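Researcher: Re-running this chain for the archive, since the previous output was lost when a drive failed. Same request as before.
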Amino acid sequence: MRTPGWKAAVLLGALATGLAACVRENAPTETEIEADENAARAAEAVANPARSGEDRADDALRKPANVLAFMEVGPGDRVFEMEGGAGYYTELLSYMVGPDGAVIMQNPPSFDAFVKDIVTARVEGRLENVRISKSPFDKLEAEDASMDIVTWILGPHDLYYSPGGAYLGDDAGAFAEIMRILKPGGTFIVLDHVAAPGSPRSTGGVIHRIDPALIRQLAAEAGFVMTGESNVLRHGDDDYLANVFDPKVRRMTDRVLYKYKKPE
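Model: Regenerated structure tokens:
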């Protein structure tokens, strides 16, 4: 029997090395595995049968599975939800953090006129890991460095809104408070309706939009570091001068979604 020559041996060795390299290259990275796990948890939360039909009807336009996956919320996390509103995301966050986690759902006291009964019905006797907090945006009810994640969904523009003359909080003070309550390395997620570039701050109180440059400015001044941005809710054909409650753009506005970190 003839033994393979040195050329054949080299060729076989190269093929084996190449095959091993292909296997390594095709193996998912740790980051990819974590992303898949985040997406799976988000999809599971959105599919929870305890959610109302009304909430589910909004899913197609609000894309909660994408947003939650971007947040990277994990089991056991402590989440401070600024301006939770009627609780659409509160319930989803409650499912995401699970029984070992906690969600503090914040709204300014003046929002009781809009959402008090809705929030009570959603939370009491249903979401045991959720605590309701009523405070201005610049006086958050949480201990220093106690939160893994702070979310502010469709809300920063309301820093310039005064329903019935109510004071909701100072803008720089609010971002400083977010920094205060986050743990080192903690995550700040912000999502809001886009106003035309250069729009004044008062736009937030009139048509409920904000220039994304202002969000980035306030975050940077507070010491946050941007680590991510998602385009999942961007709509370039939006009318940036329309009130977000105008039926022609409602739930279809151009929205920015940013991720920030508090430095270690």
